[in-house]
Design goal:
- The protein is of the alpha/beta class.
- It contains 11 helices and 12 strands.
- Strands 6-7-8-3-9-10-12-11 form an 8-stranded mixed beta sheet, sandwiched between helices. Strands 2-1-4-5 form a 4-stranded antiparallel beta sheet.
- Helix 5 (161-173) packs parallel to helix 6.
- The longest helix is centred in the middle third of the chain and has 18 residues, at 191-208.
């Protein structure tokens, strides 16, 4: 997908052939690489939201954590604002790249007050000259995310799931980052709260000029918040396109199956909708199939699909990894 990366200044984030393998012990003195991420490439422009979707276990979260070097990538390159992200540069990049974690119950320290949770990044980077300045910054962020000043002295267990996630968002934004990786930020929340958190993220993006990598499996929510969507399957991106192009005209058979699962608000349309049911189970990344990773569950699969991995092809400013996408 190197054609996409032409002008460094055009993109805030560029990921080139990122691979993340984990050695798994599979016998006496024997390890096998678990290919969690296997050659992923994409770019995100400043102020843009890229949605990263796929079923559980496909490697979405690993991509986000590898970008921040919470995992050291096996190979591939990540560039942030034109500068390569590595062990040396990540130190000063930490302030520009932050993450909102999936589970607001486990990602907040139960022994710390909300004020200290949100203020901890300020402490680490020493970004205040007095306790008063520190508190002012924290209260300003709390107001931005919809929390009251009196919440500052409370502990995480005293809040609802939605409020805890607002605390997590405030903690991520206190350093004024440019990129925020949202790792399924709504999947642990009640449905009634999910829309509030997504609307908050969108509001903050407009007010603060944020760039998002939005990792999720809720396809309807991804369509609402993202300008571009990348679909992952078994550690690889199989389709990447502008949101409306992907949702109205999916090219990859896996994308079509995913989109057919979205419920429609019209009962008659929902009744007449043709649902694509995938056969079989998701293969193990410890032992991925030869050729196209989707060939074991694809109704279109032919012999070449079992032998040769399809290249990522560019078609009308979008990308698809399929031998027979045009059938």
């Amino acid at each position: 997908m190197s054609e996409e990366v032409k002008n460094k200044s055009e993109y805030l984030v560029e990921v080139r052939d990122l691979k993340q393998y984990f050695p798994i012990k599979t016998g006496f003195m024997k390890t096998t690489p678990l290919k969690a991420v296997d050659g992923v490439s994409f770019s995100i422009k400043p102020g843009e939201t890229l949605g990263l979707v796929g079923e559980s276990g496909c490697g979405k979260t690993t991509v986000g954590r590898s970008l921040l070097r919470l995992y050291t990538p096996t190979s591939g390159d990540v560039f942030f604002d034109g500068e390569r992200v590595d062990e040396k540069s990540i130190g000063h990049m930490r302030r520009q790249m932050q993450m909102v974690f999936q589970d607001p119950y486990s990602s907040l320290n139960p022994r710390m007050t909300v004020e200290d949770i949100i203020g901890e990044p300020l402490d680490v980077h020493k970004l205040y000259t007095s306790r008063g300045e520190r508190r002012d910054k924290i209260l300003h962020l709390m107001e931005l995310v919809g929390l009251n000043a009196e919440h500052a002295t409370r502990y995480a267990h005293e809040f609802s799931g939605g409020q805890r996630q607002r605390v997590g968002i405030a903690r991520a934004l206190i350093l004024q980052p440019e990129l925020v990786i949202c790792d399924e930020p709504i999947s642990a929340l009640d449905v009634s709260i999910q829309a509030q958190v997504v609307n908050l993220l969108e509001k903050l993006q407009h007010e603060l000029g944020l760039t998002y990598l939005f990792i999720a499996h809720d396809l309807a929510m991804v369509r609402y918040i993202s300008q571009k969507v990348a679909v992952m399957y078994l550690g690889q991106i199989v389709e990447l396109a502008d949101t409306e192009d992907l949702y109205t005209n999916p090219l990859h058979p896996y994308t079509k199956a995913l989109l057919s699962s979205i419920p429609l608000p019209d009962p008659q349309k929902e009744k007449n909708k043709q649902r694509i049911i995938l056969q079989g189970e998701l293969p193990s990344p410890l032992n991925p199939p030869n050729g196209c990773p989707f060939n074991t569950r694809c109704s279109r699969a032919k012999e070449i699909c079992k032998q040769k991995l399809p290249e990522m092809k560019m078609i009308n400013n979008r990308y698809v990894r399929c031998h027979f996408y045009d059938e």
